[in-house]
Amino acid sequence: MQQIRELLDHYPFIQHLDQSEKESLIEQIKVKKFYHNQMIYSQNTSINEVMLVLNGIIKTSWVTIEGKNFTKMFVPAGLLINIVPLIAERPLIHDYIAYGNTTVAIIPGAIFLNIIQANPQALFYILKLVCIRSQFSREQLHYAATDTLRIRLAKELLFLAHYHASKLDNVIHLKLKLTHENFAELLQSSRQSINREFSWLAQAGIVQARYNQIAITDLTRLTLLAKSNTQVTDTLFA
């Protein structure tokens, strides 16, 4: 119990709770571990819980009727997810798959709903979180319709650099091992087109990609490329 308390104390949502709410929440939380590629939830599942990603990564994806795979995003540790499906009482629209060994804290839906109904600060935090994610999704739809593949790839690399990377000697190394096929799924493109864009980025000295290991060697130029077709500030996913 003490270990769970220490893990959760630094999460913003938990910090908005009073002591009795924290204790009630901690008593009901279940911590689960998943191995790489293990299915956590399948598409169209109805859920009655929210989930905090404690460590590891969750890949949200789906498979079309024709059998084609699409990846929505790689959800990083530190995020509270399943808020909208729980409150809207709608099934999940993606598969949730552990990407690497992943640990999550599962909060029963009834406990979560009771807290946000009784605690205005916690409710406002959740409202702001949902609004930020909604704005992020709207931007992604806009960029998918208006940006070139090169710019969209640059934006995706910046997202991955922010949430899934480490820095060494001014070079940003992505922690995820991603193939060009993975990027094709993320950007709804072909592997051949992704190959061409990575070749251009490599020749420009912006990115190096070897054996599924990606390093960003010029973050400034990558950022300029990502913003070259927009006049608004991108929203960071929260």
Automatic annotation (TrEMBL):
Keywords: DNA-binding, Transcription, Transcription regulation. This is CRP-like cAMP-binding protein. It comes from the Bacteria. GO terms for cellular component: cytosol. Residues 13-116 form the Cyclic nucleotide-binding domain. SUPFAM superfamilies: cAMP-binding domain-like, Winged helix' DNA-binding domain. PROSITE patterns: CNMP_BINDING_3 (PS50042). GO terms for molecular function: DNA binding; DNA-binding transcription factor activity. The keyword Transcription regulation applies. The keyword Secreted does not apply.
